[in-house]
Sequence to fold (158 residues):
Amino acid sequence: MDINQNEQQSIIDLVDQHKDLPGALLPLLHAIQGEVGYVPDSAVAIIAGGLNLSRAEVHGVISFYHDFKTQPVGRNTVQICRAEACQSMGSRLLEAHAKETLGIDYHQTTADGNITLEPVYCLGNCACSPSVRVNDDIVARVDQDRFDELVANLGGSQ
Fold:
């Protein structure tokens, strides 16, 4: 996906702001994702040139850290815990229900752009499994009905 001129200029400006910082790459990637919503593939060359790194080095960091997105994401992110405690309490059934209800798989976004579904490997809420994170909020003991309620509260169409 290509970026528009405003997004490209924002990336160039952010590179200029960060290029003299020690260890600038990670803060820069976070800043770009915060500004644009993801780190576009077309930004890799701009970042590499601005920080005097190879494109492979930049791409390696982006692909290593799961928090960096390389495609636009939904207005809301729903993460379902896949760790053992949550699995033992029904997260696999919950994840199947979520995929069917939303009509998407992990790492995909609903057609209306409202929800991106992501797996997560432990939310640190094991005693209250299964757990789901909706944007920045962790929700405990989520069953199919509770999931439907959470998604309905996010608006958009499913």
User: Anything to note?
Assistant: The chain has two domains: 5-64, 76-152. DSSP finds seven helices and five strands in the chain.
